Amino acid sequence: MIRRYINTIKSKLGAFKIFILEHYLQSLPTVEFQTRFTDERSCLAHLENFKWGNGYNCSRCGNTNYCSGGREFSRQCIKCHHIDSPTSGTLFHDVRFPLLKAFYIVFDLSPYREGIKTSTGLSLKLGLRQKTCWLFMRKVKREMIKNGMSRYSSKMRGKIP
Ligand SMILES: [Zn+2]
């Protein structure tokens, strides 16, 4: 019972964190986005800071001590040996194309400014397959709606295939 309650809180917190990250990327001015994110490392460093900037917490056991997880930016819990990557628990988990392009798609889907906003357009701009863009866009839009960007939800919902 308590465990289920804790898990519910954890998943709500996770969803909220995704929202914060998404909102941050979408509200950046274009010039700032382009200066801040230039390659894979800058995106990973941002995610690392986003996840653990206020201190590390093992996602499995809650322990606060870690060592390097082998790969750059990943962390390993010294108690349960769970390895956590900066992308896990975010929109960018399991994304199989360059992170910078995924960041760009989230940025482009901002409801605050004009953008390309179509999978065909983004695929041409980023050199990705149209279906890859479409699938990732769907994931981002679903998160946007789930996280109650209600002002935009009705507008966005119509656009989800
Ligand atoms: Zn642990």
List keywords for this structure.
single chain; 161 residues; mainly alpha; 7 helices; 3 strands; 55% helix; binds zinc ion
Report on the structure:
- The chain has 161 residues and is mainly alpha-helical.
- It has one domain (2-53, 87-157).
- It has helices at residues 2-27, 30-36, 40-52, 99-108, 119-126, 130-146, 150-157; strands at 66-68, 75-77, 83-84.
- A 3-stranded antiparallel sheet has the order 1-2-3, with no helix packed on it.
- The longest helix is centred in the first third of the chain and has 26 residues, at 2-27.
- The chain is globular and about 45 Å long.
- The mean pLDDT is 87.
- The structure holds zinc ion.
- Zinc ion binds at residues 58, 60-61, 63, 77, 79-80, 82.
- Zinc ion is lined by residues 58, 60-61, 63, 77, 79-80, 82.
Concise overview:
This protein is mainly alpha-helical and 161 residues long. It has helices at residues 2-27, 30-36, 40-52, 99-108, 119-126, 130-146, 150-157; strands at 66-68, 75-77, 83-84.
Topology:
Layout: H1 2-27, H2 30-36, H3 40-52, E1 66-68, E2 75-77, E3 83-84, H4 99-108, H5 119-126, H6 130-146, H7 150-157
Antiparallel strand pairs: 1-2, 2-3
Bound molecules: zinc ion.
